[in-house]
Specification:
13 helices; globular; alpha+beta; 6-stranded mixed beta sheet
């Protein structure tokens, strides 16, 4: 979305001399849908997160993709234990409220002057303290066990929201840096992928070069050390290429998945650069080579983590490299189960799974006659699934995160479907839960051009790392002309991990390019006109050489 929105804005501004290099054979990145037998399902982005101040909601509204008057369906949750026992509604409601308070207190550290307890650096550690204090006042052992299981379930859900393996990975002081927009999660009835249509509508097809995965970006400028205030290292180069990339998941191994798109503005036929500096060169895996004046890079953080040392020549400035290393790019996968017939109660929209703790796990998941081995991922990966939600009466969606998600990606779909059937039969205490007729699992970690799902601020990282990653590389020491710009959800300091964050980052770099490309000629013409006028006036006055020189100097705008 970041690269496409950049191109969209440039075209609307009359800047059409560019190309989009897309590594996949499709457009959209981490916005992607596929067809099951009866449903069109989204493998990546699912909903518009928030209404107020959300540009993707405004885009959807302006193009008739969502209804301004929505009647939200009631969300009825059932929480069940491994023994098939359901949590009473009043206890479930209390758990949600308590957990919400725990999380809100974690968020407050970002804006407040208060310091967390000594030695507590992560969200997971802080919430664990809150849970321990909360459970101390529950005298009944069975009730305490159930509440503990509910908190563990909510923490697993939080890893899917945050995009991490464990909440122990998320920096406590930075949790509040993410801004949650009001209005809830808004689905697009025709599928989230429809949000791409209005952005693509004015981009000519010949501007998009598919299957052009980028292998190297060569910017010939010379690097400088960072400025004392933590600003960019600069490069000296005049011609530049605009690059963007979009991340997405594909179902098969032979995938069109690619999170690299480069928007390139080719240089003119003759290189008349007044600076005499070299253009940026972009090399593709298929052998194609492009040069241009400005490059917008929207390659996902996961790919940057893996390839930053070889992707850029010369290497990125040290402050950018460190920011890339510190930020987190976790894995969150979907499990989609399609059935021939409904089997859940029509009033139930989600089944939350309250797994027993390690001491009570027994043999579920282990082979016949054996005990569960926690060290064996094959016997515990599925315990990271925290719920199954209804998309329709015959389509269920489960989420899984972290190392368990990465392990699931190695399994065939039928093995995942079989395990999910076992889980549902056990937790619903219903041996007649049918097997799904079709199962699709995403594989974000194993996708070459994605290598994960979305960005989070890890322990030891800060919001300023995102700001550092977003800063351009410049041709000149005065930071007037950018040669390499960066966009994508990982470059928005408040909306990282979201499509609207990616969309706004594309808007940011497009505005930067407009300022450079549309005003350079105007500035030169204005200064030349001022000088000509001053010279004419000076000669007309027929003053001595000293006064002529004074008039000429006074007429120049020292910008």
């Amino acid at each position: 979305m970041a690269g496409l929105n950049t191109a969209h804005i440039l075209i609307k501004s009359g800047l059409t001399d560019f190309k989009i290099l897309e590594a996949r054979n499709r457009i959209g990145g981490r916005i992607v849908s596929v067809d099951m037998e009866r449903h069109k399902v989204e493998l990546g982005a699912n909903c518009i997160h928030g209404v107020l101040g959300n540009p993707t909601y405004e885009l959807a509204m302006a193009n008739g993709l969502v209804d301004i008057v929505q009647s939200p369906k009631p969300h009825n949750v059932v929480a069940a234990t491994e023994e098939g026992k359901q949590v009473p509604f009043n206890m479930l409601q209390e758990m949600f409220e308590a957990y919400g308070c725990f999380l809100h207190r974690c968020e407050e550290y970002f804006l407040s002057q208060y310091a967390p307890p000594d030695g507590v650096n992560s969200v997971g550690e802080h919430i664990a303290l809150e849970i321990a204090l909360y459970l101390e006042r529950i005298p009944n052992i069975e009730e305490r066990r159930m509440r503990q299981a509910m908190f563990e379930c909510l923490l697993k859900r939080e890893t899917c929201i945050s995009g991490c393996n464990s909440m122990d990975e998320i920096d406590l002081l930075e949790l509040g840096s993410y801004v949650e927009l009001q209005g809830g999660n808004i689905p697009i009835p025709s599928g989230y992928s429809a949000i791409l249509r209005p952005v693509l509508s004015i981009i000519p097809e010949d501007k998009i070069l598919r299957r052009h995965a980028v292998s190297k970006i060569i910017w010939h400028g010379t690097q400088q050390s960072s400025f004392p205030n933590g600003g960019l290292s600069t490069v000296s180069s005049e011609n530049s290429l605009v690059g963007s990339n979009n991340g997405a998941d594909s179902v098969s191994e032979d995938s069109d998945d690619s999170d690299k798109t480069v928007i390139g503005e080719p240089p003119p036929a003759t290189n008349n650069s007044s600076s005499g500096l070299n253009p940026v060169k972009v090399m593709c895996e298929n052998g194609a080579v492009f040069t241009a004046d400005h490059v917008v890079v929207t390659i996902p953080l996961g790919v940057l983590k893996d390839r930053q040392s070889t992707l850029f020549e010369p290497a990125l400035p040290q402050n950018k490299c460190k920011a890339i290393e510190r930020l987190l790019f976790g894995t969150v996968d979907k499990i989609l189960l399609e059935y021939d017939r409904p089997f859940l109660n029509p009033d139930v929209t989600e089944v939350m799974l309250l797994w027993n703790n390690e001491d009570e796990m027994g043999t579920f998941g282990a082979g016949p006659g054996s005990h569960l081995d926690l060290g064996d991922m094959s016997q515990r990966w599925f315990r990271k699934i925290y719920s199954f939600s209804k998309i329709s009466e015959t389509l269920l969606l489960g989420f899984i995160s972290g190392k368990e998600a990465e392990y699931m990606e190695t399994l065939p779909f039928d093995r995942v479907a079989e395990k999910c059937t076992e889980i549902l039969r056990r937790f619903l205490s219903d041996p007649f839960v049918p097997r799904p007729k079709m199962c699709i699992c995403t594989s974000w970690k194993n996708q070459k051009y994605t290598q994960g799902s979305y960005t989070a601020i890890a322990v030891g990282s800060t919001q300023s790392d995102i700001d550092t990653l977003a800063q351009p590389l410049y041709y000149d020491q005065l930071h007037k002309t950018p040669c390499v710009l960066f966009a994508g959800e990982h470059t928005h300091p408040s909306f990282y991990s979201t499509v609207h964050g990616a969309y706004l980052s594309g808007q940011r770099v497009a505005q930067t390019l407009k300022k450079v490309l549309l005003h350079q000629d105007e500035d030169l013409e204005r200064k030349t006109r001022k000088m000509d006028n001053c010279s004419t006036n000076a000669m007309a006055q027929n003053e001595d050489s000293e006064s002529m020189l004074s008039s000429w100097i006074e007429g120049i705008s020292l910008e």
